[in-house]
Specification:
It contains five helices and eight strands. It has 131 residues and is of the alpha+beta class. The chain has one domain: Jelly Rolls (Sandwich). Strands 1-8-3-6 form a four-stranded antiparallel β-sheet. A four-stranded antiparallel β-sheet has the order 2-7-4-5, with no helix packed on it. The chain is globular and about 40 Å long.
């Protein structure tokens, strides 16, 4: 992945050029057609995703909970908690995604406190309420 592309994503704002280059080398890029399944609820979590282009739909227990677009990310909750995925994610449009494996995500969390804080803030915002 090109460093400049990663630098354009707000999750990575404020990282130095060498930090961006290191993270960019850990991401893989993938293009998907509308309707493609990206994550299934209750599956094991092993990838972290960033939407580069297009939109994805998030469903929890068959109810639509969100649409995510360019610059948004998903897959973080299961990786951090160690639990299975709590939602299904499907490409709403043709999408371009960047993804990294769980061990790269863990290293990113350990080495980039600013990114870690942003991800934790997103988790707090996205967590299903316990009614």
């Amino acid at each position: 992945m090109e460093t400049s592309r990663l630098a354009s994503i707000s999750l990575f704002d404020g990282l130095a050029e060498d930090e961006l280059a290191n993270l960019a080398s850990r991401f893989q890029e993938e293009q998907l057609l509308a309707g493609s399944s990206l994550a299934k609820q209750n599956d094991f979590s092993y990838k972290f995703f960033v939407v580069l282009d297009g939109e994805v739909e998030i469903y929890r227990d068959f109810e639509h909970v969100a649409d995510l677009g360019a610059g948004d990310f998903f897959g973080e909750m299961g990786l951090i908690s160690g639990d299975r995925r709590n939602a299904r994610v499907t490409a709403k449009t043709r999408c371009e995604l960047a993804w990294m494996m769980s061990w790269d995500f863990q290293e990113m969390q350990n080495n980039h406190a600013m990114v870690c804080d942003r991800i934790e803030a997103a988790i707090a915002e996205r967590s299903p309420s316990s009614d």
